[in-house]
């Protein structure tokens, strides 16, 4: 049995689909079981209980350390032996100041590494699904706000993160590994928007805007602003072959994600 936290979210829902498609029993953890559609092989719970392995996901924000530590403690108490933690690219291995980029996931990573469980840490870069926030502007015919300038990123498809997680949760050889997960190529926001426009059959434009606190919800503004400036100066222009080494194939392109997700824009 694999326990999936964040099962209604971006990577968690893809992971549930992946595990069920492999015929593996899954328990989805959610605060609201009514949000999970019943399926053969799937059980739903609101709390951590006995299982073979845990996908540890905490919702983005400053509460990540507390959520990670509470969930991990419950998993150890329940006798779970293996954990795969979703972290983020650039998370430092040393303690970080609270407002520092990378501070959200560092305590959870450290707790996982010292838990005594079999562990794998996944550090994905920016998700392809983040571009769904452009949908409203696209529908309204407005230019897409670009706070990242010409900073490029190795945009990753969350379905590939889920497949790597499924491998680490269910097969041998991933204990003690930290995988930095990216897509196959570096793309700027204008690159992404051009590919999305081709997928949608529309001419889309961007407008370059200096990132400001007001662009983000107040509780994440410090970290998000630091992240935006990092991307702008080219600090997240990273492509790795970690996903390819685990999956035995190239990770998906942003173009393929855009074509498969046309209906969501
Ligand atoms: N987006 C990116 O580009 C990116 C890049 C690198 C790393 N990450 C990391 O990915 C993780 C997930 O981010 P996401 O934005 O894509 O989230 P998400 O996985 O779409 O959704 C968050 C999930 O957390 C669950 N949850 C449990 N307690 C919650 C609470 N108190 N408040 C809100 N949700 C709660 C929700 O489940 P229920 O509502 O069913 O309970 C939901 O399924 C974060 O740790 C983030 O740092 C994201």
UniProtKB/TrEMBL annotation:
<dbReference type="InterPro" id="IPR016040">
    <property type="entry name" value="NAD(P)-bd_dom"/>
</dbReference>
<dbReference type="InterPro" id="IPR051604">
    <property type="entry name" value="Ergot_Alk_Oxidoreductase"/>
</dbReference>
<feature type="domain" description="NAD(P)-binding">
    <location>
        <begin position="6"/>
        <end position="170"/>
    </location>
</feature>
<dbReference type="InterPro" id="IPR036291">
    <property type="entry name" value="NAD(P)-bd_dom_sf"/>
</dbReference>
<protein>
    <submittedName>
        <fullName>NmrA family transcriptional regulator</fullName>
    </submittedName>
</protein>
<dbReference type="Pfam" id="PF13460">
    <property type="entry name" value="NAD_binding_10"/>
</dbReference>
């Amino acid at each position: 049995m694999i326990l999936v936290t964040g099962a209604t979210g971006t990577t968690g829902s893809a992971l549930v689909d992946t595990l069920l498609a492999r015929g593996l029993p899954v328990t989805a953890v959610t605060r609201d079981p009514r949000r999970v559609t019943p399926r053969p092989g799937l059980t739903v719970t609101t709390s951590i209980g006995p299982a073979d392995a845990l996908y540890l996901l905490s919702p983005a924000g400053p509460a990540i350390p507390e959520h990670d530590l509470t969930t991990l403690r419950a998993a150890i108490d329940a006798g779970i032996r293996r954990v795969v933690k979703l972290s983020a690219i650039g998370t430092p291995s040393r303690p970080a100041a609270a407002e520092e980029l990378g501070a959200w996931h560092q305590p959870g990573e450290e707790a996982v590494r010292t838990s005594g469980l079999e562990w794998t840490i996944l550090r994905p870069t920016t998700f392809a699904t983040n571009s769904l926030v452009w949908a409203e502007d696209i529908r309204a015919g407005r230019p897409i706000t670009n706070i990242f300038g010409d900073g490029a990123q190795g945009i990753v498809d969350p379905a590939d993160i889920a497949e790597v997680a499924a491998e680490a949760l269910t097969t041998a050889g991933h204990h003690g590994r930290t995988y930095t997960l990216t897509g196959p190529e570096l793309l700027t926001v204008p690159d992404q928007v051009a590919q999305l426009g081709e997928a949608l059959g529309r001419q889309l434009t961007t407008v370059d805007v200096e990132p400001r606190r007001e662009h983000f919800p107040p509780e994440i503004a410090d970290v998000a602003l630091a992240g935006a400036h990092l991307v702008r100066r080219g600090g997240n222009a990273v492509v790795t072959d970690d996903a390819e080494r685990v999956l035995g194939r190239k990770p998906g392109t942003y173009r393929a994600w855009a074509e498969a997700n046309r209906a969501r824009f």
